[in-house]
Specification:
Layout: H1 2-15, H2 34-46, E1 54-59, H3 61-73, E2 79-84, H4 87-93, E3 98-103, E4 106-113, E5 118-119, H5 131-148, H6 150-164, H7 168-188, H8 203-212, H9 220-237, H10 245-255, H11 268-276, E6 288-293, E7 296-300, H12 305-315
Parallel strand pairs: 1-2, 2-5
Antiparallel strand pairs: 3-4, 6-7
């Protein structure tokens, strides 16, 4: 990312006389840990940076999460600017103020709610993304249609190929609509005490898949895609989705080039154990964001281990 856009950013900062320093971080969920945060803190302390400092997170979701948590915790909070360069970060992680790092026991267990002062999303930056990275972002886009807008889901059914090809008109509309949906949810519930938890649709299982595979085998969007299929099956089991809905959801996810079936090599027992450690669990109860219908989502804590394992079993055969 720095090779593509770092010099442009540096030239802009030099032009307005801003003192700046670059710190490059490795890419990947396995590097999203406290060691990365300590690197940033060490650089800030050695450079004698004060509370007027601004951290600019130029990159994808991992960079934004690490930089955001570093900004939230250095001197009890310094300014933060998000400059997301991936579809996933433009439609999801840069918006809403969630920052944090992973722990060996679970994803994003260490973090803070910390809003950026500005988010600068330029869809032209997406043209350099690998195909798999584009599809990761598409998974989150599909989620927004499922939880908040049947109309948007219908639009995606007719435009998914154009989106994965990053056709500018479609891409701009999708990024704008996705950010608006998320911003509206966050405006109602910034600290995730209620409605904001619907943004975790597919993530309870998705995070478990990432955790049990050591954050190495599956990209975030791919794990969430499989998690959304499982959550859709569970939604149907709990009396929400009607006949044909799960098939429509699975079809759209598959057409986006994303995985739908959880591999048999990942056991139900491992996944269930990881879900119990999920930060959304309360009093030992696993909380799921489930669909009442396509376009509307609610939080359900009344889900038994038997129901979860049955949904996992069915999700391996979609």
């Amino acid at each position: 990312v720095y090779g593509l856009y770092g010099q442009k950013l540096a030239q802009g900062l030099d032009k307005v006389g801003v003192r700046w320093e670059a710190l490059l971080l490795p890419d990947g969920e396995r590097y999203k840990n406290m060691a990365a945060v300590e690197r940033i803190h060490d650089r800030l302390i050695k450079g004698r940076y004060d509370r007027d400092t601004v951290i600019v997170a130029l990159g994808g979701g991992v960079t934004g999460d690490i930089a955001g948590f570093s900004a939230a915790t250095y001197m009890r909070g310094i300014k933060l600017a998000q400059a997301p360069t991936t579809l996933l970060s433009q439609v999801d992680s840069s918006v809403g103020g969630k920052t944090g790092v992973n722990h060996p026991r679970g994803k994003n267990l260490i973090g803070a709610f910390y809003q950026p002062g500005v988010v600068l999303a330029d869809i032209s930056a997406l043209q350099t993304l690998p195909d798999k990275e584009i599809r990761c972002g598409v998974a989150e886009v599909i989620k927004y249609g499922l939880i908040a807008s049947a109309r948007f889901f219908k639009f995606l059914e007719g435009a998914i190929e154009a989106l994965t090809a990053l056709e500018p008109g479609v891409t701009l509309k999708v990024v704008q609509r996705s950010c608006r949906i998320k911003a509206d949810v966050v405006a109602e519930d910034e600290k995730e005490s209620g409605k904001r938890a619907i943004l975790n649709f597919g993530h309870t299982v998705g995070h478990a898949i990432e955790a049990v595979t050591g954050y190495r085998r599956y990209r975030h969007g791919y794990a969430v895609a499989m998690g959304m299929v499982t959550a859709s099956i569970l939604s149907e089991m709990k009396g929400g989705l009607k006949a044909g809905d799960v098939e429509a959801i699975t079809s759209l996810i598959s057409r986006a080039g994303l995985p739908v079936a959880i591999p048999k090599a990942i056991s139900d027992k491992e996944l269930y154990k990881a879900m119990k450690h999920d930060k959304k669990a309360k009093a030992g109860s696993i909380r799921f964001a489930l669909l009442d219908t396509i376009g509307h989502c609610e939080i359900n804590s009344d889900v038994s281990e038997k129901e979860i394992c049955e949904a996992l079993r069915r999700s391996r055969h979609v």
